[in-house]
Structures are given as structure tokens and as C-alpha cells.
Amino acid sequence: MEVIRLEGVHKTYSDNGVPVHALRGIDLRIEKGAFVVIAGPSGSGKTTLLNVMGALDAPTQGRVFLESEDISLKSKDAIAAIRLEKLGFVFQAYNLIPVLTAMENVEFTMMLMGIDQQKRRERAMEVLGELDIEELANKRPNEMSGGQQQRVAVARAIVTNPSIILADEPTANLDSETGANLLDLMQRMNREHGLTFIFSSHDQQVIERARRLILLRDGMIEKDEILEP
């Protein structure tokens, strides 16, 4: 089943009045349960493409469909609701809320969705346990290592069972062993729960895990390859 489709997507920015064509006519379909890596040189459009798929950025031209629903022209409120309910994000800089514990960070999206406190606490503990970090439940980000913070970020991204998890350079601030452990975890979530992961990365160990590799250059798809699992 298709979870996301892009049709003729362009994204143009203005840099001091000079147009910058970050994406140039992207056509792309991604199936449910995919483990996709978007790679390419710096400035190729990787992060822009991820942001468009995650409804963090609107295309200048073209359409984006999430589970067959055209989200390109929706209102800001509707887009915010879609991000909340259907999309999970893992960022390079973790983006945890510093004053909240791991438990509270993982609960945060569910709180915004209006889920009952007891239910969201139970679900948060379930996910922390599944990721083997339940001992971090009452720790704040400044009491955790980078790898622990990123695991909490993954827990927060998957806790609501989103349609897609978008991960922008998730291993960039981690040493190679910690990054490998994080990727093991994401692969397990993909395999056991059918979660759809889309990465933007130039990290070779991320690229080597891809079941589908999309190479960008100058805002265009240079290569789109299905790999052996």
C-alpha cells in the first residue's frame, strides 16, 4: 500500500533575491513498510525533500499525497493536525524538550492529541521498555548521553504509530557504534511493526542499511534503486 506520493514537486527558495531551485520536478512513490534512504552530496536537496514529505515545507509547485490524501493545499491547522497524527520525526539534534523527562518527552505528542494521562503514560512506558530505555523514564536530556537522547527521540516518534517516520541525519552526532545500535533498533521497529522509515543521510552506515536507495543531485532524482533486504 502506498503511503506517500509526490507528483512534479518543485521547491524554490529566494537567497537575497536570487532563486535557488532546491527540488526540480520530483516524482516519487513510497510503499508502507519501506526502509528508504535519501542520499546525495551537500546541497542536493535531501533535507528539503524530507521536509516536503513531512509537511514542514510546502512545495512551490506540484502535489504531495499522504495515504492518498492531497495535503498540498491544506490549511496550516489541517497540516499541523496531519503532522501530529500521521508523521513522526527524528532530527539530527534530538530536539527533546530540556525541562521534561524522557517519559514526558515521549508523552508530549499524545498530550497534544488529547489522550488521557493514564493511557499515554502506559503507552510511553511500553515504548520505552520496547527500546530498552525504561531506566531513563525520569531523567532529563542533560542527564543522558547523545545515544540515549536519540533513542528517546525515536520513542517519541513512534509512540503514536504514525504512518511514516522521517529521520534527518539521525546518526550525525553519534559515534559509529552508537549509530549502529540506533539503526539496529530502527530496523527492528520496521521489521516487527511494519513502520515506514525514510532517512536523509550521507552516513555510509545508514546508506548500507537501505532497502531502497534514492540518490539526489541538484534537486533531481539521479538514481532510485530497490536493494536486497
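^ that was protein a. below is b, sequence first then the C-alpha cells
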Amino acid sequence: MITNLSVSNSLVSEWVCEMRNIDVQADRMRFRRNLERIGEVTAYEISKLLTYKQVQVQTPMAETTCMVLETQPVITTILRAGLPLYQGMMNFFDKADSGFIGAYRKHSTEEAFNIEQEYITSPALAGRPLIIADPMLATGASLILAISALLEFDQPSEIHIVTAIACKVGIDAVAAKFPNAHIWAAVIDDELTAKGYIVPGLGDAGDLSFGKKRQA
């Protein structure tokens, strides 16, 4: 399943507009906060699809029944660009566990690259919802590698992929590999360049959030 949050007009569209705007992108705090807010909204939408159970609680006046999550999710992100989006989801799933993946593009030529994954840590996933945050879903290569590595540990009950900007090429690649995953995108763009950049996109989400990387 694919959910495009921009299909219907909402504040998500305004946040995406600010993130794309080169005149606004210089404000790193605003850029990070918009990613965080997309994470918060998406977390709320995902929460509607999870499994709940009844619990009894005592108020000052009487005992009553409430609905709470049956199983807390595991929220995972690809470092470093995914941190603001991840934080937004953690703001809502405040009892969730967390996993982290270190991956990056290693270019052999100007256009050709491989995904290098050097670090992965995760709590137990078996029978739990897995939510993985990556702000840009371009080719899908890094997400496919990350999720495949996580599935070597355990089998989650469901997989949710959360991204701010996605393109159709990346969505098709991820959906082909993980047909049961639910992909959530703030907006979906049509074009992917030969270098693997989304158009119109917004640039490098990690650089815009935390500063330009030093070139090796």
C-alpha cells in the first residue's frame, strides 16, 4: 500500500513547499522542524492501523476502559538524514524502541554508485511493527539494503516506510522487494536523474538539516 499525504490539501503540503524553497532552506532549524512535523503526522496516521487492546484504569471518580497499543513499534532510521523525521515519530510513539542504520552512497563514477552499509543495531523485531524513516526515497537501494539486513534478525508483524520526498522509481523498487510494506510519503515526484537525484526534489536532506558534508 502507498499513501501520498499530498493527495489531499493539508499543512503537509505547506511544509513540503517550505522544504523545497531555496529561499527558506537556509534556515536549518525550520527545515528540520518541517521534517519532524511530517514524522509526527505520519506517526498519527500509522497509529490508526496498529492493533490495540483494552485496559482498565482508575480515575479519581471511577474505573474506566481505555484502548492502548497492544505492541509497541520499533522505529528505525538511516543516519544521518533520517534523524529529524525519526524524532517526529518518536514524539508520538514515545514508548517505542529504536534502531539505527549507517549507510551512504559510495560513487565509483559521477553517476554510478553502490550503497555502503557499515552499521546496524536494532532491538528485537519479532512480531512487532517496524517503522523505518528515510527522508528521500530515490532509487530505493539504501532502504532495500537496510530492511533486508533488519529482516535477517527477526520478522516484524508489519513494515511501514516513512519518507518525505519519494519518486515513482524508488517506490516501485521497494514495493517489488517488499510487497507487503506500507509506504508513506509526504509527496511523490515523477523524475529521477541519471545520478539518482529526485526532481523537483529538494536537494540533500542531510546537508540541509546538519550542514554540507566534507568531501572525501
